[in-house]
Write a structure and sequence with these properties.
The protein has 412 residues and is α/β, with parallel strands linked by helices. It is built from 15 helices and 13 strands. Bound molecules: uridine-5'-diphosphate.
Length: 412
């Protein structure tokens, strides 16, 4: 049986002074006609990364407005996750495809997991490619509506892997993407666009005083009186931590004493992650002003919040990025933010208006210096970024989008 994640309780009423009133009214109206709808989210992990982050807020809010929502995690071993990691990379454009042996592993785990999806649901939401094959292998749940929710940047996918997955997509009633550019060409289920969102009422995103942030950051050995550059990301080539170090070195020539923190948790069983972590440490070359922290350093939600609050600017120098929740988190804290000009980041940052978009380490360094030289202007920009997040990228808007889709699917 697929493990259920215990998500606790949240109340939509707690958000009423944070988001627009008409959004909450619309949610209540939609929810009234969906009362008791049984929804099941299925994904591959309850820890780490953007999907888990979203479900911990979305699932309890679905319950609070009257649905019966579950979140269940598929079962997998290292051999399976090695395949799905390669698949994920390929869908983001990596040239390496999936071998016939890997396909067999992928299909075997999906078959076993399909057998473990018990219960009666009206809507099943399958997140990302890992469990996509469950749909074609279930024997029950025939009357349910099935949705595939893709969180990946699919703008330039490896065609072999996309074609391998296409028949598995065919059984779904809808496919949800962050943005229109990610909808694959050719036959797929009806596409729905729904960018993700952050929860303003979690320890990671609630306002932390400057004093508390400084207190926490100081415990990691940083000097809170010197400027801090920050990137919060898994250690992954697409997140380009090496490029961030290069940008930091350019900045350090003009701003002696500037510090850089690279904060990234990762699963202990992710060999590729640890390998890239080691490469990042090598690239930092023992510089005492570069702090590389991982989950081994106990960096949880409050600590991420503290680093984001303390940083003079937050960087997300991705080369590919499905959406970039770290950008949303930074903008919500009204921090000056510099993002790679890719994927979902331009949806959040309009260059020079709500933050800066960059295509190289040199440009990243220059924008960092601009922010240091003009803190007043940078703060104005960051405040516009915060209002953009309030209007577009907080969890109640995402909840509303899901309720709209459920209404369409079940004809409520
Ligand atoms: N995150 C975290 N600790 C870390 C690294 C990342 O809590 O050490 C969180 C980060 O704050 C964000 C999520 O993990 O909420 C990453 O989401 P994003 O969309 O930026 O990237 P993904 O990992 O999904 O590619």
């Amino acid at each position: 049986m697929l493990r259920q994640v215990n998500v606790g309780v949240k109340a939509l009423a707690d958000y009423h002074s944070i988001v627009a009133r008409d959004l909450l009214v619309e949610i209540r109206e939609l929810a009234a006609s969906l009362e008791g709808l049984r929804v099941c989210h299925v994904n591959a992990t309850s820890f780490g990364g953007g999907v888990a982050e979203i479900l911990y807020s979305l699932v309890p809010l679905m319950n609070d407005v009257g649905l019966k929502a579950d979140w269940r995690v598929m079962f997998g071993r290292e051999e399976f996750f090695n395949v799905t990691k390669a698949m994920h990379n390929a869908l983001q454009g990596a040239p390496r495809g999936i071998t016939p042996d890997e396909q067999r592993i992928f299909e075997r785990y999906n078959l076993v997991n399909a057998g473990g999806l018990d219960g009666d649901y009206d809507v099943v939401i399958i997140h990302d490619p890992q469990p996509i094959g469950i749909r074609g292998n279930t024997s029950g749940l025939d009357t349910a509506k099935w949705v595939w929710r893709c969180h990946i940047d699919l703008s330039d996918p490896n065609p072999q892997v996309l074609e391998y997955l296409r028949p598995m997509m065919a059984g779904y009633d809808a496919a949800v993407f962050h943005m229109a550019q990610y909808v694959p060409q050719g036959t797929i289920p009806p596409a729905v666009i729904m960018p993700p969102a952050i929860d303003p009422l979690t320890p990671k995103n609630m306002a932390l005083s400057a004093e508390d942030a400084a207190y926490i950051v100081h415990q990691f050995g940083l000097d809170i009186d010197r400027p801090l550059m920050l990137q919060v990301s898994r250690f992954d080539p697409w997140k380009d931590p090496l490029g961030v170090i290069d940008a930091y070195r350019i900045v350090a020539e003009r701003v002696p004493g500037v510090q850089l923190a690279l904060v990234g948790s990762m699963a202990t069983d992710d060999p590729e992650g640890w390998e890239f972590y080691n490469r990042t440490v090598d690239h930092a070359d023992g510089d005492p002003n570069i702090y590389i922290l991982s989950n081994l350093n106990n960096v949880g939600g409050i600590e991420v919040n503290a680093f984001q609050t303390q940083a003079v600017a937050v960087i997300q120098k991705s080369l590919r990025e499905g959406f970039g929740l770290t950008v949303t988190e930074s903008l919500w804290k009204a921090r000056p933010t510099i993002g790679g000009n890719t994927g979902g980041i331009p949806l959040q940052i309009s260059d020079g208006v709500t933050g800066y978009l960059v295509d190289s380490s040199a440009a990243c360094a220059q924008r960092m210096l601009d922010i240091i030289d003009d803190p007043g202007g940078a703060h104005e920009m960051a405040r516009r970024g915060k209002e953009h997040v309030r209007a577009e990228f907080l969890t109640p808007r995402l909840l509303r989008d899901w309720l709209r889709l459920f209404s369409d699917l079940v004809g409520a």
